[in-house]
Amino acid sequence: MKKILSIFLFIMLSISFVFVGFTKFEFNVTEAKMAASNKKYYTIYEDSSKQKILFLKGDEVSTGDKYLSGNNKLYEIESVDDNQKFAIAKFIKDEELPKLKLKTNSQNNNVASAATNKKIGVYHTHNDESYYTPDGVDSVYGKGGVHTVGKEFVSNLEKLKIDTIYREDLHLPHNSGAYTRSQVTASALIDSGAQAIFDLHRDSTKRSEYLSKVDGKEMSSVRMVVGLSSKNYEENKKFAYKIKSYADEVYPGLIKDIYFGKGNYNQGLTTKAMLFEMGCENIEKSLVLKTTPYLAKVVDVVLYGVEEASDLSVADITNGGNDVTNVAGVVNDAGSSGVNSNTTLYVLLGVLGAVAVVFALVMIFSKKARYKVARFFSETFAGIFGKKKKI
Amino acid sequence: MSVSLTIVSVVILLIMFGAGQRILDSLRLNDKEALIILILICIGLIIPPIWIGEYFCFSIGGFLIPLGLSIYLLISCGWSRDLIRTIIGTILIAGIIYLLEWLLPADPESVLIDNTYVYGVIAGVVAYVLGRSRRNAFISCLFGITLAQLIQWIINFAKDTSSILGLGVGGAFGTYVVAIIISVALSEFLGRCFESATIRKEEKKFNFKTHTYDSVKNKKMNELENDQENRIKNVELVKNAEFNKNNKKYASNDKKSAKI
Questions:
Q1: Do B103 and A27 touch (CB under 8 A)?
Q2: Which residues of B touch A342 (CB under 8 A)?
Q3: Element (H or E) spanning B247, and its range?
Q4: I need a labelling partner for A38 at 20 to 30 A (CA). Which of A121, A301, A359, A361 fits?
Q5: How far is Cα B255 from Cα B260, in angstroms, rounded to an integer?
């Protein structure tokens, strides 16, 4: 009976593997095949009549995913046609982003305090992602074009006197295990004391989808992706909203939109983790590189607030400033700041130390306690280290 | 608190309330040992991973302690009995996880459950089907998932695209936890179902000596014990008879010698 059932279970398991492999998912064994599949993108329409295109998105789209458009309208993906690569989104509501009252440059007297304890981590989960111009391909097995964008973003952050840890660790191949591998890198960044971590990607859609004008210059826009499965979803969403709100006010056109996809995207590790889609494969990398100084300034102000942000970052704030309130940086915001893992460790070690001291004192002064502890260890480890001693 | 740490905490509570005694028995642990190990795992998880070089790191709670436990289980249960099953289970789980990494969609948008847990569920089911023992399932899960990571790491090294191997770090520990809990739970519950299914076929009789319901096994055991008891009684009877005979002989001899 047992044998029959186990064989049955094994056969069912094998059949389900084959079924799943050949029906739902593409069996992307070679990188070439994968590159071909990346060229495809989904068109998301605003209604079922398919009159108005809401946005384009590479990779997969799933029912239940959410989307915040550039004009802050929140949609939900209602249905998806995987064969024809389109989806229908339903309008939910007009989302109100947190209003930021900005301080003018002249009133910012505390710029000197900048560059203190500012630490940011940058990495790439999908290292292979590249740009057709000038990389020639959209994917390479190694450090793709997205690494050049990462380096530029990091150098711009450092210009703003932010200590940036840039990890170019590879998480290849570009398959479902990439996020599992990159989680190690993201965790290492947090352990190093990074107050926020940014995962830089590039999308795979049409060039026109990302082409934008910021500050009168033609460049690529940025899409943010927030994980619906992240345990920090609400905080990650707030962080994304703050970034978009500030960017919309100071650099309109920089942040394209926000996509809320199923998945975690390593955002469960900290409340201040974000995935940036830095353009798409069909846009020129030079246009994406132009985006990085603006994005760095946005990150600086949103994370550390006007008071602690660099002089260069707050220089672009131009909207009046009579009603002056500081932009509170999310790092200093008591409500949203995640506790650093090192702090937790020190607290835990402190508690353990205190317990150890009390325990030692009790053991020194109480004969009964010594007897009980000796008996406990004798009973517990008798099976492991040898015969139980008689006490 | 991460999901895996929450699961470990729940397991600690369950053990404190006395649950899972049979599972612990098969893992050659008592509840105190299990509690100490789980608490050590929790503490080890909070400690940042230990890095050896640029490309390798491991977690004390997420990998080192479970590895130590697996080795202890292998040694305590005898190499010959479990080693082949464990090796087969490990290779199969590693192969399936490696395959799944390619089968499942690369981007998390289209995944209902986090890949980390999908690997865990599959590894858990495979470990149960192969081993059908809580011990084998535990060891195969840990070694299989580690081997899958190791394979990709070696491939990346061979392709000159070195990546990080993080054992028990990040999502890897979540996979271990899910896989081990699924496989051990399946072994426990399905094992019990099989046992109860086979017992129902036979009539159960209450044994007034042992105060338990006799199953087939027990019945046979009792029969064997009865046989042995009967044999011992027979032997004793024979001995007694021989002794009596001898006694009689000796008595008659004594009488004869007395007459003489």
A1: yes
A2: 48
A3: helix B216-259
A4: A121
A5: 9
**Would you say A62 and A77 are in contact if contact means Cβ atoms under 8 Å apart?**
yes
B170–chain A Cβ distance below 8 A for any pair: yes
Flag if A9 and B129 touch (Cβ within 8 Å). Answer: yes
Contact assignment for B100 to A27 by CB distance below 8 Å: no
Amino acid occupying residue A350: G
Amino acid of residue B100: L
**Dihedral of the alpha carbons of B33, B39, B45, B46, in degrees to the nearest 10:** -150
Query: CA A174 to CA A154: how far, in whole Å?
Result: 23
Q: Which residues of A touch B194 (CB under 8 A)?
A: 1-2, 5
| Euclidean distance between CA atoms B18 and B31, whole angstroms | 8
DSSP category for residue B109: G
B71 touches chain A (CB under 8 A): no
How far, in Å, CA of A171 to CA of A260, rounded? Answer: 23
The distance in angstroms from the start CA to the end CA of chain B is: 102
Name the nearest CA neighbour of A118 among A247, A240, A345, A299: A299
| Distance (Å, whole) CA B187 – CA B140 | 13
Q: What is the pLDDT of residue A28?
A: 41
Cβ atoms B70, B86 nearer than 8 A: no
CA–CA dist A257, A95 (Å, integer): 12
Which chain A residue has its CA at the smallest distance from B96's CA? A17
- Let me know: does B52 contact B100? Beta carbons within 8 Å: no
- Report the relative pairing of strands B56-58 and B165-167 from DSSP bridges: parallel
Q: DSSP label at A162?
A: -
Kindly indicate the confidence band of residue A252, based on its pLDDT and cuts at 50, 70 and 90.
Answer: very high
Is the CB of A13 less than 8 angstroms away from the CB of B49?
no
Which 37-96 residues of chain A touch chain B by CB within 8 A?
59-62, 65
Q: Which pLDDT score is estimated for B259?
A: 67
Do the Cβ atoms of B82 and B139 come closer than 8 Å?
yes
Residue B156 contacts A, CB cutoff 8 Å: yes
Is any Cβ of chain A less than 8 angstroms from the Cβ of B158?
A: no
Q: Give the β-pairing of B50-52 and B212-214.
A: unpaired
Domain boundaries along the sequence of chain B? 3-201, 207-259
Residue B227 CB: number of other CB atoms within 10 A?
Answer: 10
Write out the two tokens for A33: 């095949």
Coil, strand or helix at B13: helix
Indicate the residue of A1, A172, A380 with minimum beta-carbon distance to B33.
A380
Q: What is the pLDDT averaged over residues A141-152?
A: 95
Nearest-angstrom CA–CA distance, B81 and B3: 35
Summarised one tens digit per residue, pLDDT across range A44-89 is: 998 878 888 999 998 788 899 999 999 999 999 999 998 888 999 9
CA atoms within 13 A on the CB side of A147: 15
